[in-house]
Amino acid sequence: MGTTQRRRPELAAFLRSRRARVTPQDVGMPPGLRRRTPGLRREEVAQLSGVGVTWYTWLEQGRPINASAQVLDAVARTLRLDPPEREHLYHLAEVPFAAVSRTPVLSVGPQMQGILDALEPRPAVVYNARYDILATNGSYRDVFAFSGRVRIEGVTNVLWTLFTEPEEDCPLVFRDDELPVMVATMRASYGLHAGEPVWEDFIRRLSAASPLFARLWESGDVARPGRRVKIFRHAEVGELRMTSVSLSIDGMPECRIVVYTPDDEETERKATWLHKKSRPLEGTGF
């Protein structure tokens, strides 16, 4: 059975189950006469969604009809779908899904901080889609001297730091290779935020502050977060060869944990030394 053939029965079952849980009272309609089945009737969903009864019936029957995003949104509102259910509806109807734009996440809770701390001695950080640093563990602060560099909305931003500070202070050894990837990664998320004042102001200000960023941004390249081997320079221990891995976070859209793991034994020794140096009493019993 092909993908479309499998999705249509799933779409039909999903719409029926969502319709059954919405009562007339939920949508401001009188209960009317006794109903054979719970929930709204098909014609009521069609009326409330502003679509034809025949069209909605065919949609719920899983027939191969075209549905626009606007119509699916109307149906989703009528059926009181939450964000995960709305996305599921789009996928089953084979309509490209665009997440609802949200205000950027600028902080994390104690549980997330606890996860970062549990990853010690591996450096770990939480970024949002704009590369704002939302939280770090101690090992990240040992390796990267980003703390205190507040650039936007009271949050340290890695891109702003990397593009506006002197090149000799950049911790990336292969700066010309890594910065284009970071800009392309941010641009992949920009499509959801194009036109938003916070994003547009950030891009405008950073473009004015850094001709290099402006040129890379204008290239239009896009990329997704992923595993990469990066080489960093540290004032005390020299070069550190690290593998970075990005992990998505449930409940925090467009945010990710990035964990850095030593890629060779020498980096492992250096990272361990930095960790112990900043925490000399750990494991001593004092």
Structure commentary:
Pfam families: HTH_31, MLTR_LBD. With 286 residues, this protein is of the alpha+beta class. It folds into two domains: 91 residues, Orthogonal Bundle (434 Repressor (Amino-terminal Domain)), CATH 1.10.260.40; 169 residues, 2-Layer Sandwich (Beta-Lactamase). Helices cover 45% and strands 13% of the residues. It contains twelve helices and seven strands. Strands 2-1-7-6-5 form a five-stranded antiparallel β-sheet. A hairpin with a 3-residue loop joins strand 5 and strand 6. Helix 1 packs antiparallel against helix 5, helix 2 crosses helix 4 and helix 10 packs across helix 11.
Label this structure with key terms:
286 residues; alpha+beta; 434 Repressor (Amino-terminal Domain); Beta-Lactamase; five-stranded antiparallel beta sheet; two-stranded antiparallel sheet; 7 strands; MLTR_LBD; Helix-turn-helix domain-containing protein; Cro/C1-type_HTH
Work out the helicity level. 40-55%
Could you give the distance between the termini?
65 Å
Average pLDDT: 85
Q: Main beta sheet, described?
A: 5 strands, antiparallel
SSE order in H/E notation?
Answer: HHHHHHEEHEEHHHHEEEH
**Helix-and-strand structural type:** alpha+beta
- Overall number of domains: 2
